[in-house]
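Appendix B, Record 12. Input sequence as logged:
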Amino acid sequence: MPPPVLWQFKYSHYNEKVRWALDFKRVPHRRRSMLPGMHILPIVWMTRQKAVPVLVLNGKPIADSTRIIETLETLHPDPPLYPAEANARRRALDLEEFFDEELGPHLRRVWFYEVLPDAAYTASQLSVGFSGASRAVYRAMFPGIRAVMKLDMGISRPNAEASRAQVHAALDRLETELQPSGYLVGDTFSVADLIAAALFAPLVMPPEFPYPLLTPPTPAAQFRDALASRRGFAWVTDIYRRHRSISAEISA
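Logged structural output:
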């Protein structure tokens, strides 16, 4: 049986959710990293939609990070990400949905609003780890790719400001939901903690993030610095330090 193959963006927080789940469950897998914008044709051909991550299991592609984690939990239940007790499980899944919908797209929108004007930085961050030739071609093509990204993510000043407020609200919710244990549900690490921490990762920039994170340009750095003293910001750093497992990726 071939190992699972994860088609991914290295920088994306939705992709980080799935990487983390694979690593946490110690599932050996291969990764196929793609450049945003250049990924569309092969992913549409594979799945009839254009978003990554996509996990190929036994030749069958699964799109959507939540569906992928649900499948991994079914096939690899130990160590668990879903709490065993029904009410706790329901709470964990509700929090997963909240952060997926009320944090993920909004942090992505406001963060790219701040970094996209700096084409050199953004192209470099999105192409980390690719060959020099690939990075050079991507940088040359980036003005067009940037226009598509802005359209696709609805990036405008009014939308970014609305999303900035949503990020603050999600951080408020995170801090409100934290239990005395330091986790979001019960006394152990669960899917709720993984999702919240992974989706905040581009902002918090934890050192355990599996790919290099470049120093962001001033507007993004100021946004980050304004939240760095928050309890939730420190929580993300701590969760990464304690629970971001060693990679289960199979080397090529």
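Strands lie at 5-8, 30-33, 54-57, 60-63.
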